[in-house]
Design brief:
With 260 residues, the protein is α/β, with parallel strands linked by helices. The protein has two domains: 164 residues, Rossmann fold (3-Layer(aba) Sandwich); 71 residues, no CATH class. 33% of the residues lie in helices and 26% in strands. It is built from nine helices and twelve strands. The strands form three sheets. A six-stranded mixed beta sheet has the order 6-7-8-3-9-10, sandwiched between helices. A four-stranded antiparallel beta sheet has the order 2-1-4-5, covered by helices on one side. A two-stranded antiparallel ribbon has the order 11-12. The radius of gyration is 19 Å and the shape is globular. The structure holds adenosine-5'-diphosphate and magnesium ion (MG).
Length: 260
């Protein structure tokens, strides 16, 4: 669904991405890890087409992104940007409905099919109850769900999601990752999700790609990333790991004060 080949990008004379290659298969959940400033958002923005053409090639469903019109690309890939949006004076449902634009034209105005798709997306993310509230009156977690619903309503086959749980409490973190896993399973969506939630990535992702200083430093199944050595290569610090009580997978745990 997504193949990035040797992507390099510089700003102000500084290399931000250096020859990054990665791919996401149909229906695959890939978590993008890496410290702050590693280049995760820049990579997602290139795949989403919101930054000018870099050096390297981005294939969407086998076609060079540069050859696709914005409308064609929007049918393949949807992007959920990082953080809060500036105050949007629209109701949640209206924001989700805007995601249907790639399918509409003067000759094909919004139809029942589009409205149904919007309702389905609201339902899938569990936000029907506040669909008529103005976006800026919603909490951070609710806003994040609206943006996710908009991406779903776009009917793309690949979702690029940038730190969907920043600023969210543990309950919303759990819900957002549950929704992501759920749509992946039910709608066979491919996911590329940048996150600092290492444990969620280890539990939910099929594969992890880790960036550091604009380069891929580790890539593999969660089991291969769940080691003190691999995590140190990514974040530059030593982590303590312990097994999850239900799945037996290794996860990171905080060090107890005063312990070795
Ligand atoms: P991440 O999402 O992994 O935290 P980013 O992709 O946001 O990293 O940023 C990677 C690096 O690129 C950072 O050092 C950041 O300061 C720099 N950067 C991002 N956008 C710009 C820009 N528009 N101009 C200059 N530097 C930028
Ligand atoms: Mg970022």
């Amino acid at each position: 669904m997504l193949r990035i080949e040797s992507l390099s990008f510089a700003r102000g004379g500084r290399a931000i991405l250096r020859g990054v290659s990665l791919s996401v298969a149909g229906g695959e959940f890939v978590a993008l890890l890496g410290p702050n400033g590693a280049g995760k958002s820049t990579l997602l923005k290139h795949a989403a087409g919101v930054l000018p053409a870099p050096i390297g090639t981005i294939f969407l469903d086998g076609t060079d992104r540069a050859r696709l019109s914005p409308r064609e690309a929007a049918r393949i890939v949807a992007y959920v940007p990082q953080g809060r949006e500036p105050d949007i004076p629209y109701r949640a449902r209206e924001i989700v409905a805007q995601a249907r634009y790639p399918f509409l034209s003067t000759w094909r105005p919004a139809a029942r099919e589009d409205r149904e798709r919007v309702e389905r997306a609201l339902d899938r993310v569990g936000i029907k109850a506040f669909a008529d509230r103005v976006f800026s009156t919603l909490s951070g977690g609710e806003q994040q769900k609206v943006l996710l619903a908009a991406a779903l309503a776009q009917d793309a086959r690949l979702l690029l999601v940038d730190e969907p749980t920043t600023f969210l409490d543990p309950h919303f973190q759990e819900e957002i990752f549950h929704v992501l896993s759920d749509v992946r399973r039910r709608e066979n969506l491919a996911l590329l999700v940048a996150t600092h939630e290492v444990n969620r990535a280890l539990l939910a992702a099929d594969r992890i790609v880790a960036l550091r200083d604009g380069e891929v430093v580790r890539e593999g199944a969660p089991g291969t990333i769940a080691s003190a050595e691999a995590l140190e290569a990514i974040y530059g610090v030593r982590f303590l790991l312990a097994r999850h009580p239900n799945t037996d997978r290794l996860l990171i745990v905080p060090r107890a004060e005063g312990s070795a």
